[in-house]
Structures are given as structure tokens and as C-alpha cells.
Amino acid sequence: MLEDWDKFIDTKVLFRILNSIDSKYICPHKEEVFKAFKLCTFNNCKVVFLGQDPYPQKDVATGILFGNKASTKDKDLSPSLKVIKEAAIDYSIPHNYPIEFDITLESWANQGILMLNSALTVEINKIGSHTQLWRPFISQFIKKISNNGSYIFVLFGKQAQTFEPYINKKYNYILKENHPAFYARNNQVMPSNVFYEVNKYLKNQYNESIVWYNEFPYCN
Fold it and tell me: How many domains does the chain have?
């Protein structure tokens, strides 16, 4: 079910959760609940982004933290994604060419970021309705992977930050940032620091970095 992540999963806890959920009334659709694990394999994972719960509006959540469907028009992007997009691109620096930004954020997952909500489902239009339901699963998962390897954990918002005690600080690097919804509510720009810090760490550890967006020079 969860590709090569299975060894870090407590299947009894997982099936207890799944058996208590009515899949007809949840976000994302049941086929997408574990998409983050499928797009970011264990062997490729270097970073874990942890947020709150999926978008509760019907047909918006995709199973990828903060992501929207590829068909979503710019004016209809979720407020949190608008904030993330602006911070990742960092308009405070000059951009000389057109920018392409993947609003699904699947390209980030494919580059080794596990894009997780701290609850993998939510009832339609009921924010936080499955927060406690998923907590045993997420806390055990984070504890197991953080004891097994070295990751950058980025905790977005207070709910995600309650999982900090489950992260082994001896082997892992932790960054904390407000949830993008905080900036959206307050009409503020989210600092770009976290994206620079992730790449700084990856460069030092693996001589790699995440491509947050693409710029394309004009063709003559």
C-alpha cells in the first residue's frame, strides 16, 4: 500500500483508522490518501514537510501537502498554496525570465520531499475532524523514520510542531515555520528562509538541492 515505506508502518493502527472512516465523505479521495508516499519513495527521501490536515473543500485536496490539481486556475489557487508559491519563488530577488511553478507540488515530492499532512484525511468541510484519528499513525511513523536515517523535517504550523518530540534530534535537522494559512489570514508574505535553509543543508550533506521552480529564457 505504501510502497517501500511499509517497514515503518504499524499496519494495525493504519487499518483501525481506515476502518473508522467513511471514504465517501473524506478529502482527499480515497485513491489519493497515500499519494505522498507513492511519489516520494523511501530510498529517494531526504526531506519531510509536515503540515496540518488536507484542504476540506470537496475535490480540492490531492494527497500532496499544499498541492492543488494541475487544472486549477491561478485565481482559484488555495490561499496556502499562493503563500507557498510566493515564498518558494522569492520575488524579492530579480527574475529575468518567465517562471514555471508546479502547483501540484508533485515535482517536489519526486525530488525527495515527503509532502505530508499530519492528518491524511479530513471530513468534507470539517477542518481538523480527523486530527486525533491520525495522530498515533503519524507520530509512530515519524519516530521510526527519524531513528532510521537523517532527514530535514520542516514543521509548518503549531499542529505540525507538536510532533517535534517524536523526531530524533541526534540524526535529524528540524526547521519550524508558521503554517502558510497564518500568512494568508493576515495578508502577509511568508519568508523564503525555509527554502534556502533546506537547500543549504542538502548542498552540504549530498551536494544536491531542490528545484522549487523553473525559469525559461526567451527564445529568439
Answer: 1
